[in-house]
Model the fold of this input.
Amino acid sequence: MPLAAVLALTTLAHALGALTALAVAPLSPFLLDAFGLSRLEVGLFLPAVYLGGVVMSLPAGWLTDRLGVRVTLGLGQGLTGAMVLLAALSPSVPVILACLVAGGFGFSVLNPATGRAIVEWFPPHRRGMAMGVKQTGLTLGVLTAALTLPPLAAATSWRHALAIAGTASVCGGALVLLAYRGPAAHADARPAERPRLAELSIFLRRRAVLVVFACGLLLSVAQSSVLAYLALFAKETFAVSAVVAGQFLALAQLGGTGSRLAWGVISDRSFGGRRRPGIIASALIGAVAYALFALGGALPPPLAAGVAFVAGAGAFGWVGLYFALVAEIGGPRYAGLLTGVATAFAWTGTLIGPPLFGLAREASGSYTTPWLLLTGVALGVAAALPRLRPLVQRADPVTIPP
Done:
């Protein structure tokens, strides 16, 4: 396959998977009203998806390395779409949550499978850009969901909107199964050359690698909180409609998309392939935006819209660099497996983030406290990452220095 086709297909697959799995985020105001939920309860929908993802993230990485990108990604997307379709037909919140957990099983393959595709096809000096472009699929998928699903739900119902989101992932899975082909150099790999789960201990004994995983968890706490609550925050703080509140989330996704692209190019061309500086900068950008959001209604709505764009750049911009770093630590042999572990850590943060944010909102009676909590989380990551020794030798990206 041409490299451009690989990049386009993996980005589209990521976008459709994210549109489907994370459709509950822009639809949260409709779900809150339909079921009479509290702010804490509405924060459970997004973690339900990621709970399934955490449970399956390590097996998903292992399956990607064993079965290949095409089969794992295609079937995973099909599963996500089918479960979200069932959620749209479900009569109660517990059944919807169960469907979303099952949909998360399929969603878990997105990062390992698309990340392995990038590692297999792209050389190291182009990998940061490629991973950044591929990771924009998530922000573009949520951007599309934020712009299209709330108006559709307002015109028809949230069930119709969620059903269309589920259909998107089913179509994406079919496209991957039909169109994707791996490079010939990897097609003939013998089972003995493929990784075993026990080999994870090689990496888990490295303190620096564990710190990277922990930072992914903390940044995901912030990212998932922005994703789950920005629309509700805008609606309740600035007295806008649910459709306009969805546009705040869309602005955040635009910021995240631009940031992922920019940091991918910068890390390749200006940082000599180093990924950590961009991750640190994203954390600092996010910290500034969260601190501004803590001002609440003191922010004029036009300025708050600009802050939403900046918050998206900080909350979502680091992901491509993070998974590029993890894949390079693992190298071609362990890229899927190690990305699966990184995904487990990151999505554990996603399980923690929205409930913690919602609990802080309920306990304090305002959004100031949860936004300040996210500010502290982002600053902690920005302080921890620069202290690590180099994780990848750029002359040989597979080797971790002792």
